[in-house]
Write a structure and sequence with these properties.
With about 120 residues, the chain is mainly beta. The protein contains 1 helix and 11 strands, in the order E-E-E-H-E-E-E-E-E-E-E-E. The strands form 4 sheets. A 3-stranded antiparallel β-sheet has the order 1-2-3. Strands 7-4-11 form a 3-stranded antiparallel β-sheet, with no helix packed on it. A 3-stranded antiparallel β-sheet has the order 8-9-10, with no helix packed on it. The termini are far apart.
Length: about 120
């Protein structure tokens, strides 16, 4: 056993090497530590298709979204320009923007795609 390596899923130190993969006998998770480290380094906000988003991007809403506390609806296909990414996202709403006819609001990145 490698004393430095732990299972990324359950945190168990009881892991063993099997061919090109590491295996955790406690939870059954198998992983390659070389490829598992790459996605963690590439963190950030991504749209519904997996494209990375940045401040100032334009996005398109992919489905109708009800505005909480109002009878308004943001229709699917609405284009939103000049978004800002929120680092301390509340309830997963990690995009701050202004939508014409509605005003300032926050969106979840899973309901938009990069325009």
């Amino acid at each position: 056993m490698d004393s430095d390596l732990q299972c990324p899923q359950c945190g168990s130190a009881n892991v063993y090497h099997d061919g090109s993969l590491w295996v955790c006998p406690d939870c059954g998770h198998e992983w390659n530590p070389d490829t598992a480290a790459a996605p963690e380094a590439e963190a950030g906000v991504r749209d519904a298709n997996g494209n990375p988003l940045a401040d100032g991007d334009a996005v398109t809403v992919i489905k109708d979204l009800k505005v909480k506390g109002s009878s308004l609806v943001v229709k699917g296909g609405t284009k939103v320009k000049n978004i800002r990414l929120v680092t301390d996202a509340v309830d997963g709403h990690n995009i701050a923007c202004k939508i014409d006819g509605i005003g300032a609001m926050n969106l979840k990145s899973e309901f938009v795609r990069k325009a």
